[in-house]
Amino acid sequence: MGKEIVFGMIERGGKAIAGHVDTRKKKDLQPAIREHIEAGAAIFSDELKSYDGLSADYQHAVINHAVEYVNGNIHTNGMEDFWSLLKRGLHGTYVSVEPFHLFRYVDEQVFRFNNRKVTDSERFSEVMSQIVGKHITYDALTGKTEAGKSPTAAREAEA
Cα separation of 143 and 151, whole Å? Predict the structure, then answer.
C-alpha cells in the first residue's frame, strides 16, 4: 500500500500550514510555496530536488541532512518538530487513518500546533467560533460515496 504525501511549511516562531499533495514533484510543491510565502523571503529546506529554482525568487538556503542538521541559522528543525507531532498523533492516538480523512487529521494537528501556547478556554472558544452554521453529513463523515462503499472501494470498482 502506498503512502500519502503531506507537505508543510512553518514560519520561524510562527504558524504552520500543511496539507495533502499528489506528489513530491516540483510542479506540486512550488506552487504551494509561492502561494504562501512572499517573494524575497528567506526560506530553508532540505535538499529535495523539487525545491531547485526557488533561489530566483527567494533567499533559499539548503541543509543536507546526510552531512548535518544545523548550520548556523539554516535548519528545518521547526518543521521536523511538527512532523514528529503529526506522526505521533497518526500512529499513536488515531492508529488507523483512511486516506479519505487524512486532511482532517492534518488540519487538526496544524490547529493544535498553531494554538499550542494559548489556554484551553481560548482554544475552545476558537474552535466554537469556527463551527457555527457548519454541518457534515454521515456519508461525508464516513467517506461513503455509494451505499456501503468507501471512496477507495468505489475507485477500485471503476478501475
Answer: 6
Of 87, 86, 94, 98, give the one whose Cα is nearest residue 16: 86
**18 contact partners, CB below 8 Å, separation of at least 6:** 6, 7, 8, 9, 82, 86, 106, 109, 110
Residues 34-71: tens digit of each pLDDT? 999 999 999 999 999 999 999 999 999 999 999 999 99
pLDDT at residue 7 in the model: 95
- Expressed in percent and rounded to 5, the helix, strand and coil fractions of the chain are 45, 15, 35
- Residue linked to cell 494537528: 109
Q: Which triple of cell numbers denotes residue 117?
A: 501556547
CA 73 to CA 70: how far, in whole Å?
7
Question: CA 62, 57, 15: angle at the middle one, nearest 5?
Answer: 65
The answer to whether the beta carbons of residues 32 and 22 sit under 8 Å apart is: no
pTM across the whole model? 0.75
Sorted by where each starts, the structural domains of the chain and their CATH numbers stand as: 5-117 (3.30.420), 119-159 (no CATH)
